[in-house]
Amino acid sequence: EVQLLESGGGLVQPGGSLRLSCAASGFTFNRHAMSWVRQAPGKGLEWVSSISDSGGATYYADSVKGRFTISRDNSKNTLNVQMNSLRAEDTAIYYCARDWNYGGPLYYFDDWGQGIQVTVSS
Amino acid sequence: DIQMTQSPSSLAASVGDRVTITCRASRVFNTWLAWYQQKPEKAPRSLIYDASKLESGVPSRFSGSASGTEFTLTISSLQPEDFATYYCQQYGSFPPTFGGGTKVEIK
Predict the structure, then answer these.
(1) Is residue B98 less than 8 Å (CB to CB) from chain A?
(2) Residue A90 and which of A68, A80, A121, B4 are 20 to 30 A apart at CA?
């Protein structure tokens, strides 16, 4: 059974930083691209960032480019995102999601973590 | 970016009803479209990919279709566990984009 467990969320002031992690199990982690998708309070889903299976290629939404950095540690089956220069509009539940594809991301998400709350507020 | 417009934004239906949700793309792309179901306080669950292919374990009352820029999710006979919000998402063009969601409520 695929399991994705996010951690690292919380309350941070505008301009601050936060690092989210996602521990993966139940599948061959180093064969799948992985992504982060977020959901602002009462809003819909927004793709944030993706990373290829090897970590050699990364992709970002314009709204986070230059502020967020996605990474992965295939030896620890862990996906990360370093979030800097956080803004109020980054407040959301952040989901770790497995890409259906092997290799590079196809951006179809066939398994999701339970999500973790990030709140940016003074 | 491709904009995905879902309609209706909400609907009220009864158990046993046939429900249809539409997602219209701002321009043509391939049929790389997914549908997700999200229940309150829960993560999204993938239902359909490639516009019409059912994910493993998804009941056969769910189906998807495509015609040009219009994509449809149909629930043939609504069950109590189907009351949720449904999102479409295109992954045929970068960046991937989601529709605004359709909330299916009990009449």
Answers:
(1) yes
(2) B4
